């Protein structure tokens, strides 16, 4: 019975994640995507959400965020002073955005589901002060998308938040855009947008100028106080484990402390694949079989 419950939850999670929105990932990719493994949590978040299931939301429905847009030039000026600090992770310690770095994307964390990063408090105090006055902002960073960069189609894993983008220094050009479930938004200086990052989305900058935005996770508003409390608890105790540092004084979450070792295994796998693809796939599926056995076989005993 226990095994049947686990398998059923996994199957339902795959179906839920794959069916979310018009745009789909390849099923073989969705099967092992992180959004699938958070499927049970995400079904709770969207099921008890006060928001409708749709790709974009109106910024006007979140009046607490107005202060960010009103002070966008202050925020922009601090971001522009950080050009040597907005960068890719240097130690394979940012699991959530690791694949983005390969395409030129860069970031500087302001906070991540807990207190603000000490480095951000020192280098951009005005922006941090604005964010700390808005409890619904659970995570924030400056995100840079250089000219020629492209971020492939993906789903973010966690439905307990929605994504806020505020244009700071952008090309103001339709060739620099994000597309969420086949709906496109082009960034503009001083303009904001809100969207559900669990829908398939991708971004591209074909303009000549680098795009810099304020990127925030806003806690999803829930129908009941107990559901809101669970959302806050999950973010504080689970999502915070994905915290990544800007420098040595910032905290590294548990997920990212482990990730650097997993990345080393992944890098070795790429070497094997380049040398002998048949051996690589043999090792890969043997590993999947072992993991499956570890998880599910005890349930049948």
TrEMBL record:
The chain crosses the membrane at residues 280-300. Gene3D superfamilies: B-lactam Antibiotic, Isopenicillin N Synthase, Chain. Residues 69-221 form the Aspartyl/asparaginy/proline hydroxylase domain. The keyword Kinase does not apply. Pfam families: Asp_Arg_Hydrox. Keywords: Dioxygenase, Membrane, Oxidoreductase, Transmembrane, Transmembrane helix. GO terms for molecular function: dioxygenase activity. Belongs to the aspartyl/asparaginyl beta-hydroxylase family. NCBIfam families: lipid_A_LpxO (NF033391). This is Aspartyl beta-hydroxylase.
